[in-house]
């Protein structure tokens, strides 16, 4: 299943994913086509396959269809000028996609607890033509514990969490804007994606979407 959307470039991969119903929004497809996945993997041989790949440190770059699901779920909040927090930013791939959606007046904060991955993601984004966006603080990549969020830049219109939390971290709900939306895998042995919405009055609701298997949102191993 995962392999049938393979292409020889990001544009071809995304077009194939659209044909198979794995990307449905033209806005998301356009943003994903601007990001060359080969710049965010260790071995580019399989860059344009719809499958996760190891990026070292027990981490993986998620499969493109998961990046597409997450982005499509958050899309109503990813307007030009919006602020986005990507927790467990790993390769930096999704930060690039979010950047193309919120544009130069928006800001994307990538938060990752492995400092080596933070440095690598900055190199990846630079290679992908986003050096100026980093210089201009349109994209900020920081090392830190995602469970605490990044209060300095809060509130966020959208929060994406790329690793599974045992329960919904209160700090992250607090850092959501009103209105705002978070896409987060929750669970240990069995995990599901939750969509957490904060309305314009600050009321919070959550909805379970579908089962997944993510790496855990954990303490850093020393
Ligand atoms: N979304 C990214 C990476 C997904 S893998 C991509 O597609 O490239 C999950 C990432 O979460 C890993 O890089 C891992 O190091 C990170 N992570 C795990 N626990 C964390 C924590 N407490 N704080 C921040 N990042 C964490």
In terms of topology, how is this protein built?
Blueprint: H1 10-19, H2 26-33, E1 53-56, E2 59-61, H3 64-74, E3 83-87, H4 93-102, E4 107-112, H5 115-135, E5 139-143, E6 156-161, H6 170-174, E7 176-187, E8 191-198, E9 204-212
Parallel strand pairs: 3-4, 3-6, 4-5, 6-7
Antiparallel strand pairs: 1-2, 7-8, 8-9
Helix pairs in contact: 2-4
The structure holds S-adenosyl-L-homocysteine.
Catalytic activity: [protein]-L-isoaspartate + S-adenosyl-L-methionine = [protein]-L-isoaspartate alpha-methyl ester + S-adenosyl-L-homocysteine
Pfam family, one: PCMT
Family: Belongs to the methyltransferase superfamily. L-isoaspartyl/D-aspartyl protein methyltransferase family.
Short note summarizing the structure:
By secondary structure, the chain is of the alpha/beta class. 29% of the residues lie in helices and 26% in strands.
Overview of this protein structure:
With 222 residues, the protein is an alpha/beta fold. It is 29% helix and 26% strand. It has helices at residues 10-19, 26-33, 64-74, 93-102, 115-135, 170-174, and strands spanning 53-56, 59-61, 83-87, 107-112, 139-143, 156-161, 176-187, 191-198, 204-212. The strands form two sheets. The protein has a seven-stranded mixed β-sheet. Strands 1-2 form a two-stranded antiparallel ribbon. Strand 7 and strand 8 form a beta hairpin. The longest helix has 21 residues, at 115-135. It is globular. Bound molecules: S-adenosyl-L-homocysteine. S-adenosyl-L-homocysteine is lined by residues 57, 59-62, 87-91, 93-94, 111-114, 117, 145-147, 162-163, 215, 217-218. It is found in: Cytoplasm. It is an enzyme of class 2 (transferase). It catalyses: [protein]-L-isoaspartate + S-adenosyl-L-methionine = [protein]-L-isoaspartate alpha-methyl ester + S-adenosyl-L-homocysteine.
């Amino acid at each position: 299943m995962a392999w049938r959307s393979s292409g020889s470039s990001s544009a071809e991969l995304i077009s194939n994913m659209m044909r198979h119903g794995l990307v449905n929004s033209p806005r998301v497809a356009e943003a994903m086509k601007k990001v060359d996945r080969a710049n965010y993997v260790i071995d580019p041989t399989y860059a344009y396959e719809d499958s996760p790949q190891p990026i070292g440190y027990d981490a993986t770059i998620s499969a493109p269809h998961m990046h597409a699901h997450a982005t499509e779920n958050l899309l109503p909040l990813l307007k030009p000028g919006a602020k986005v927090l990507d927790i467990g930013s790993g390769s930096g791939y999704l930060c690039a996609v979010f950047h193309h959606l919120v544009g130069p007046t928006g800001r994307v904060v990538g938060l990752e607890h492995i400092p080596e991955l933070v440095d690598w993601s900055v190199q990846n984004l630079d290679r992908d033509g986003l050096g100026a966006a980093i210089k201009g603080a349109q994209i900020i990549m920081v090392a830190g514990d995602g469970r605490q969020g990044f209060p300095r830049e809060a509130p966020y219109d959208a929060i994406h969490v790329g690793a599974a939390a045992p329960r919904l971290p209160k700090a992250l709900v607090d850092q959501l804007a009103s209105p705002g939306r978070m896409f987060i895998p929750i669970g240990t042995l069995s995990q599901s994606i939750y969509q957490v919405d904060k309305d314009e009055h600050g009321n919070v609701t959550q909805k379970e979407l579908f089962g997944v298997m993510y790496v855990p949102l954990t303490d850093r191993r020393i």
